[in-house]
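Friendly challenge for the regulars: who can give me the structure tokens for this chain first? No prize, just bragging rights.
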Amino acid sequence: MFNNQIYIKLIVIKYKMRLNILFGGEAGQGPNFLTNLLGSALVQLGYYVFYSRDYQSLIRGGHNFNVLTFSENPVYSNESQIDILVCLDANTEMLHKKDLKKKGIILKGHKENTYYAGNLFKLLGLDFKFLDELLKKENKYEENIKFAKQGYEEIKENIQIPKSLGKNNYFMNGNQGISQGAIKSGLDIYYAYPMTPATPVMEEFAEKQIDNNIIVLELENEIAVINAAIGSAMTGAKSMVGTSGGGFDLMTESLSLTGIAEVPMVIYLSQRAGAATGVATYNGQGDLNIARHAGHGEFSRLVFAPGDPKEAQELTSQSFYFSQKYKVPVILMGDKHLAESWYTLGEMPKITSSDKSTKLIRYNSYEKDDFGSSTEIPEIINKNVERRLRKHEEIKKEEKKFSMFKVYGKDSNNVVVSWGSTKGAIIDATEELDCKFLQILYMEPFPEKIREEIIGKNIILIENNATGQLGDLIAEKTGIFIDNKNKILRYDGRPFLADELKKEIEKRLGK
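First reply, four minutes later:
Bragging rights claimed.
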């Protein structure tokens, strides 16, 4: 039975404070509102915050939960053990009490999320005036502030955390990074058919289209989306499409059209657990192979994989740069965890907007001559194929101007290798371990210097898929095979958690 009892315990947090708060309830009860309210407040006060979302494919009911982790030091992931459990329904306590730390806190007994906002602000020693200011920006202020005051007054103790740090950080998720990078790169038109987890990018563009002079169109399916985008690009517009794995499958024939017709195109492929519908609202990294090989025939492409919202913004801009300069498709790979998790980042990066529009020329899906007319002359076909493939070598030279991979940590014989959203958990997990972390951003063309970084090392591969697709790519490009015992693969739709991942890495450090 749901009751009015609230459990409060005093916790003394020592140096390197790191608190994990889980907000759980049914879809529609407001765990997202509550998590974002507290997270935004903590970031404004100078703390580092990371939170992720776990939700079912339901509009109402079911069980959704978010985990917010914050610290006075940079934090990029969650942990498996919870310090504070916020129960918007009885089911949350039943499902997650097992993960509560021995001195953990359970907040329950009320169905209004702003009541728990008051609880949390008091527990964390945050001024109620700050919560009042935040709630004034929301709907139903009078109702919300009444419950917030009640929740604040009913807490008699608080957790000792470092005081406000005064850092000028900002808070954003991966989908926001994608949209900001595209707008600053001079996007003209965005096409999409709704598909989790890429849909919020379309919503971001829709909110900003008037102020930024862009067009956002939702069409009847992904085939229509890619073909319309190609048509727009042929008229000179900077075009972009967004989808997930199943939608990308439908786009592959037209992907080949961009290759032969040399149409600049940016495709945002936001991965989720597959195959087919898979687990539609959960995470996965199973689409690397199709991104690299989709489409018939031979043509040049680029494949990028950011690991946080800042990189998402930067690599989106690089996607437009390469697609416009070399008239090739660029596939920008995200995943559900990156797309919908919120990260605390430093100073907002400044990206200079590119000129809008490209030259209007004659395009053809057939092999063509210098006038754009269809041809079947062998000599011209050979010349065209060779010219298109030469772009690959030109791109390989050009991409050296950018960060194709990053290395974190001290030099070590142990090298953790990964890509995409696994970055955050790996950085948190390896902070005190004898290893360095190699994060690969450019999947195609693959960085030649990767071989120098890993040859002769104890390589540990970490991926959110079942087959180790990055490991296969490394073997293909470098001739270096990673021992299966050194592959840490998670494929249950959930992201890696820092404390669990640390234990798995320690097993493979070769001690």
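Residues 378-398 form the longest helix (21 residues). Confidence is low (pLDDT under 50) at residues 1-15. Your move, everyone else.
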